[in-house]
Amino acid sequence: MYIDMHIKFYSKKSVKELLFKSISSGYSIVAIAIPYEDICNYNINEKWKVINIFVSKKFSNVIKKLENNNNECDNYFIDKINYEDELNEYLLKLNNQIDNNYILVNKNNTLSIKNICDDFILNYKHEIEEEEIKKLHNWLAPKFIATENSNNKKDIKMIGQENSYIKTSDNLNNIQNENIFFLQNNTDTYILKRLNIKYEDVKQIENYQNFLKENKFDLISIEVTNPEEINIIANKYDCDIIYFDLKNPFTSLKKTDIQNAIDKGLFFELSSPTILTTNTEYFYYSIYLNNIISVIPLNRLIISSGSIAHTEILEPLHFLRLHFNFNKFSYKHLIGCITNVPLACIQRASVRKSMNTAIFHKTVL
Predict the structure, then answer these.
(1) CA angle (317, 319, 325) in 5-degree steps
(2) Which domains can be identified in the chain, with CATH numbers?
(3) Which residues pair with 41 in a beta bridge?
(4) Helix, strand, coil: what percent of the chain each, to 5?
(5) Are 256 and 234 in contact (CB under 8 A)?
(6) What is the pTM for the complete model shown?
């Protein structure tokens, strides 16, 4: 179970693309991060509805030619990758045409979550009523149109392909729209809402403790630009995550700077180098990252994408590989930073939100 605790809110369309790419890439829990200055532009009560969509196996061969992929490939593994890539590319376009907060993903319900808090969002399933799924199915049905070509073979015409057809290999005489695809409730994907506050903005919030109690965000993060701010936050401001802005130097970070925050149960987070663009930025990122990881215990460190565009999101294990060049790390060192550690942070947020009344239990969802 992989968790991306930080995809950035820029617009509703961009967030939808980010969520789709994250879930399709293998993340089961994703947190949308809303900047404090944009808090008025985001509807905190908005719910995202994730639905599994499956294309019938007898039509799976047509997906490989959704775009301009006309090259035949006899390698099963490459063929499978091409199929999944083309299907996801098509679903991304399809999601952008749906006005409601539906996110269609090609994914099975396989997640098992343990040690989940009774009082937290993960304890209930984001299921959609059957009637609503039927309405969505009826809306999608015209997007998969059965047509007959000049050779009297049945083809499937996909949305966005007005002037081209995707050919099937079989002569199917009775293609019905409802047989081409089917929908299923997604019960193992969770979308959290996170508030990002810069340290200088925290100081301007009148009665921060009341603000903390009254807001409806699942996670609270405070962004720091130097080590001195960490100790101040630990002493004065409760939150779940202290986020490092690695555009600022952290070469002087010491264990004494973070000990108070660790004692208070806070977690630390840094984002992926995919957001960097120049060699100079990579150089300084490497220096700051090495120092941060040498000081902060890995069981308190979260590594997230910090993505603002869906093209910045990588599959979880590819994402971890980005950090191997910065130090002598392997999967066993960093895998917890995108699995167990963020889940522990979510549990910590449960306790904070419930005023220390939360109860944890063993369960399988």
Answers:
(1) 105
(2) 2-49+192-354 (3.20.20.140)
(3) none
(4) 45, 20, 35
(5) no
(6) 0.81
